[in-house]
User: What shape does this take?
Amino acid sequence: MSCFWDTLISKINKNDITNVLKINNINPANFAKELKEKNKLVNTILVNNKEITNNQQKENYEHIKDYDIGTINDGYNCSTFDPFLILISDLFSITITNNYDNNIIIYKPIAHSRYNIKINNDTGHMK
Assistant: This one.
């Protein structure tokens, strides 16, 4: 089940994915692989209007670095402070509004957001 990746791919502008991640064959494995390649410490995103601490930046970086792409079809446990959503918000300069089991988490660039995507998820599925 790759609903986390499928949902993000369906919501982000395809030209943005091609231009930012440099991939033409957009699928969950390629998408996640390129996000791992672009992994970095992110301090340009607010999560529910709060800055990310230095320790959180390091933990997020390690989470993405250690993510096993081979588990894509096993599902991804999206958290309420999710490293991939933070990185995606930064790389694409977009706001991500995540309705996580009726709790709204907003990932927003400090400087400028180009557009907003909305996702919905719970402990077992994302759409």
About this structure: The mean pLDDT is 93. The beta strands are 45-47, 50-51, 95-100, 103-109, 116-121.
